[in-house]
Amino acid sequence: MERNNITMAIPFPVLNTERLFLRKINQLDVDRIYYFRSDKEINKYIKREPQTREMAVAHIELLNDNLKTDKAISWGILMRDSEVLIGSICLWNFSEDKKTAEVGYDLDPEFQGIGIMSEALKAVLNFGFSQKGFETIEAYTDFRNIPSKKLLKQHGFIPSPNKQDTDNQNNEVYYLNH
Fold this sequence. Notes:
This protein is α+β, with helices and mostly antiparallel strands. Helix content is 28%, strand content 28%. It has an eight-stranded mixed sheet with strand order 3-4-5-6-7-8-10-9, sandwiched between helices. It has a two-stranded antiparallel sheet with strand order 1-2. Strand 5 (73-79) and strand 6 form a beta hairpin. The longest helix is centred in the middle third of the chain and has 16 residues, at 53-68. The protein is globular and about 40 Å long. The two termini are 26 Å apart.
């Protein structure tokens, strides 16, 4: 947004839920981001080259660049009573017309299976449809990732049998229309 040739910063859309605080990821989170992007359990269904701490620093810089250029929004997930990042969730891969986005997420295994990602996903979907005005939100998940597929179906996502992930043949594509 520009006013009188002065660029106005748009405030980051912090999201609060009953148990969670979703905030901007910053360089102080580098160790947790490195963990999320390198842990074998978290990444068992993701095709990603081996990660370094430097790659995590660069990833956080990319998240900030994507936010500034309106290409993506990434949130760190925290329990309301903690300062420790337990996961992340993003809306990214915005279509050129800004009608479609993709959702992506990861979560520390210690916090899986207790509804944390469901709570975060509900808040992010609401933001994507009501604040960003997306008409469709897609999700790509490995056909073997039963918990992720269950999560998506719980939130109304439908398999898209005619759409394929050209980068990863193991992924199934799901979508949710507003």
